[in-house]
Amino acid sequence: MSTEPKTQVTPEPEQEQPAPTGKAQPARRPMAAADWLPTVKTTLAAIVLALLIGAVLIALSSRDVIESLPYFFSYPWDFFSRAGDAIGTSYWALITGSVGSAHAVGTTLVRSAPLICAGLGVTLAFRAGLFNIGAQGQLVLGALAAGYVGFTWDLPPGLHLLVALVAGILGGALWGGIAGVLKARTGAHEVITTIMLNYLAAAVLIYALGKNAFQRPGSDNTQSPPVFDSATFPTIGNLHLGVVVAFLAAGLVWWILNRSTLGFELRAVGANPDASRTAGMNVPAVYTTAMVVAGGLAGLAATMGILGHHDSLSPTMAGSIGFDAITVALLGRATPLGTVLAGLLFGALSVGGVAMQASAASTPKELTEVLQALIVLFVAAPALIQGMLRMKSTDENKTVMAKGWGG
Amino acid sequence: MKLEIRGLTKRFGSFTANDQIDLTIEPGEIHCLLGENGAGKSTLMNMLYGLLEPTEGELLIDGEPVTFESPGDAIAAGIGMVHQHFMLIPVFTVAENVMLGREQTRGLGFLNRAAAAKLVRELSTTYRLAVDPNALVEEIPVGVQQRVEIIKALANHAKVLILDEPTAVLTPQEIDELMGIMRELKKQGTSIIFITHKLREVKAIGDRISVIRRGKVVGTADPSASEAELAEMMVGRSVKLTVDKQAPTVGAPVLEVKNVTVVDPRGVQVVKDVSFEARAGEVLGIAGVQGNGQTELIKSLLGLVKPDAGEITIEGKDIRKHGPRESLAEGIGYIPEDRSHDGYVGAFSVRENLVLDLYRNEEFSRGLALRLDALEQNAAQRIEEFDIRTESMESAVSALSGGNQQKVVVAREFSRQLKVLIASQPTRGVDVGSIEFIHKRIIAERDKGTAVVIVSTELDEIFALSDRIAVMYDGRIVGTVTPDIAREDIGLMMAGAHGPAEAAEATA
């Protein structure tokens, strides 16, 4: 809300010449504080609310607390002190386990890196009006490509890493590009094609793992050998260079979206494809490009595990990173910075969850998944949060979200 | 029923949308509410209809104070509203739409469609609103859909009917029919609040005219007041309703269209064998009732749809196979018919929209990188030059008033060197002050030697701007005439009464 009354209805031209020096002052900031502050507030409120509900769950999953329930009315103090204990211990473990030491921070960063990369892919597609459900499939293809180059080719260190990295990105880009071309050429809805491509990717992975080229020698399991050392990210402590690459990728996506002609086209097409077409933009080409870049980012996410973590290719290697990426992008409101922060949060939660289970309260680590789900649920329903916390309705929904089936 | 509004005020934060409004609507009166876009007409009506809660002031019906918490209360009190954008369900029949919300049933939840149809038939005979109750809403013309909205309100026993910009979507004929309906309603004792910014209509139908400017009632006028007086009250300064222009210095043909035919996706020929030429330094007006092929014709000129036959050339160069990007590069300036759909990206800032088709130029980008300083400089310059009223260049275009949105589109198209300017409905939904400005700029562009093609359904606009007028009917150009032709004659040509032969006589 502006502090001065709107001037657009005032007709007197003498006094109402919009002085370009005063009102139309160049504003280089991508968004004014008034724009992002409510979003940040709602997101923080969502996290706090999720932690509150999580606290109840922690209390109820603690054996001590349950034991105090039968005599709650005769001696309620036991219940409250034990519940407080359990909640305190768990959350303290969650915090120290994820950011309490240099080692913990390192683990969190390593865990966050693939989430950030794949999340960026979803974010970028979102901004072009595409709902990319296919990060998982793109990630699998990226892993196959990076892994194959990593454990078959014999190249000098450095170069080998670079080639494997590029192969991973290209693998993901190819898989994303298929959905992009289908959308551009035939209008096939990207939600459907990317979901189907996820299944296909899983099948391709199983098929490849059954071939000798991908089989780890001397192993009965369907898994590949790890990549050669020459193709791994250099490490410092428990950190690897891939983490830096992930953050650079976030910077690059920010630059593309906000400072490049490509991003201008992406955002224009995402917000109004008809006006973009009328303004001479090639809408199908933009859809294809968006999906290629999005797929490339998911492929980059795959290299974090394969080249950073010495992971071998196996049917379960991708976990649910590709799907968590969608949540990360949603939580990050489809902005690069938001995606990085959301990726870090989710990484911290998953690392901290292990510490929580190991703590005295031995809270199941699945609780962190519940926390993640609750946070996203609250973020997705801002009206709910605003109602619960009596926050002023901001009535803003500026993030461009993918269109529904009609579009 | 007598409706009084006393000291009604609505504030949004520090912004006062309505300031101490006093109005009285007498029974059986057509009360016109005249004001520019953004003057606060809609806010006032939304308070009357229970959609917004007034900050101060009161409403009285027959001397009794009332408050409306929701539209339901307003409807119960006898207030009906026909919104600018219809609230109808396209796949339902007229009768089903009318009974929506208070469905009558024959027990067990079966809808009593017959009763609804009977009600519609009764209302349509009483008020002479010809509608078929069993027609599907999506299959009837816009003018008839509007009648359905009116019947919906009457079925709720509305005593005061609010019509929000009802003529914006109608053809000239349909406007005449609507005026007939309004007179009929008035005769039966219904009061009408008629919201518009079109002076001609106000004078034709109004009993009393209240003018709203900047959220205040600045005066009440009689329909006998001149258009110039009304416009001055509305805008707050004197406005010229005619466009000052010299005789054109007509040059060589620039855009030549020969035997162009366009078939739409349903396989219907919508443009049939159209030929014309637009000459340098001249405005060619294409008149016609909405939906007679103008939309598809100009889309084919830009390359948004491919013509199925015919030739389109600019300075002798064939552009038939061009897409929009090549056509724009060829020197076509294009102001689309529906600006929010095709003209701008609502979520984008004014700064970004001002370069929506220019960002690729060397001036605004180097390789992949946008030159932000150039974008800002351009925005500051255009905002000043075109008097775009916006809080800042970073405001989203969707937050501007219609007139300023259109100025953004116009400013962008005029910031290139043009050979041909194609403008469709350049001032639709634009306030009087901005119309004057946009018309002046179009004539200035003509005087620079650009060939200008104006497509408009508003005859006033066609007459004000054109040096030659081509009339389209049923996908064809039925004749090309000069602007000294009588209004009635051109109206008949638009209605298809004149064949091309007769039209040729008119030119001679």
TrEMBL record, chain A:
Where are its TM segments located?
43-60, 130-153, 159-179, 191-210, 239-257, 285-307, 339-358, 370-389
Source domain of life is Bacteria
Q: Which PANTHER family match?
A: ABC TRANSPORTER, PERMEASE PROTEIN (PTHR47089), GUANOSINE ABC TRANSPORTER PERMEASE PROTEIN NUPP (PTHR47089:SF1)
Location(s) in or outside the cell:
Cell membrane
Cell membrane as a keyword of this entry, yes or no, is yes
Query: Record keywords: Membrane included?
Result: yes
Organism of this sequence:
Nocardioides koreensis
Q: What are the start and end residues of every segment in region (Disordered)?
A: 1-28
Kindly report the protein's main subcellular placement as a broad class.
Answer: membrane
Q: What is this protein called?
A: ABC transporter permease
What single Pfam family name could you report for this chain, choosing any that match? BPD_transp_2
Q: How does it sit in the membrane?
A: Multi-pass membrane protein
Q: Which keywords annotate this record?
A: Cell membrane, Membrane, Transmembrane, Transmembrane helix
List where Low complexity composition bias occurs.
Answer: 1-21
UniProtKB/TrEMBL annotation, chain B:
User: Which branch of life, at top level?
Assistant: Bacteria
The record, for InterPro entries, names: AAA+_ATPase, ABC_carbohydrate_import_ATPase, ABC_transporter-like_ATP-bd, ABC_transporter-like_CS, P-loop_NTPase
**What are the GO MF terms of this UniProt record?**
ATP binding
A Pfam family this chain is assigned to: ABC_tran
The signal peptide, as residue positions, is: none
Limits of the ABC transporter domain = 3-239, 255-499
Keyword Methyltransferase assigned: no
Alphabetic keyword roster = ATP-binding, Nucleotide-binding
Q: What is this protein called?
A: ABC transporter ATP-binding protein
Organism the protein comes from: Nocardioides koreensis
